[in-house]
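call fold(seq) -> tokens
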Amino acid sequence: MSIRREEQAIPPPELHGRGHATRAVIFLLLLGFLAGSADAAETGVVDEVVDGDTLLVRTAGSTEAVTVRLIGIDAPERSHPSLGKEFFSDEAAAHLASLCRGKTVRLEKDTEETDRYDRLLRYVFLPPDGRLLNEEMVRAGMARAYTRFPFSRKNAFLAAEGYARREGKGLWKDGGMAEARWLAAGNAAPVEVYPSGGRTFVLAHKGLAKAGVERGNLPKEIEGVLRLRGELSDVEFASKARDRGFRPIDPSNAGQSGSESPGQRAHQPAPAIGGTVIPWEDAHRHEGEEIVVEGTIVRTHRAEKVMYLNFH
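ret:
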């Protein structure tokens, strides 16, 4: 009589462990894919257009709109904190609204989540074909490529701006002379340069002047003034310009031109107003209430239905 022994094949320990490792890697990859898909699926409805590069979007699952700043573009503002209304700002905002207002869009972030004003930084994709709204605005000449900060689509946006320039679209109409004429017509305060004694120059802007500027320093000084005007409110600009050596052209207007720092001025009591006056630092505690706020307005944003005020 013969005895038949059946043996069950058992994989070597190292192979058995490798199988578990392989499955673990596949599982982790799958999790990564799902997580990436979840990020890519961020959507929302565009409730309002603030200006040519800023939206109010009600994201999926939320009842309140958040402010979204379009990555990589800079459109003219309708209520710049120091420059006022910029050239082509109404047209840029209207074009943006025609493309996206009321639509459900897909949002995609790049390297940064928010900017210094806590606005979401996003690429915005339009239905139904997935066109990139940011790039569409640049291609139409309604915004410039904003390369001050790095972003992944920089080359594509620069190419789109090049196309708009060549075709004379929007901001680039008539080779940019449309904006030049608008500015020269008195719609912006010029930075003026006057030759002075000793082969130096006087630089003047909005009631302030700096004397004794060497020829080689003119580009740096002009760039400094333009940068401050582009980023700061009138009060902040006056203070920073004083730090750079600017002084009031008319000494009798020293207070208005900023020769005195806002922090050094004697505090003036608020005029009598009915009800309790809330310091601006505590205003966020009274959301939904009608209150009186005391503070200095340093930045404004005028949207279609709302005026946004930043206090200091």
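The first helix runs from residue 13 to 40.
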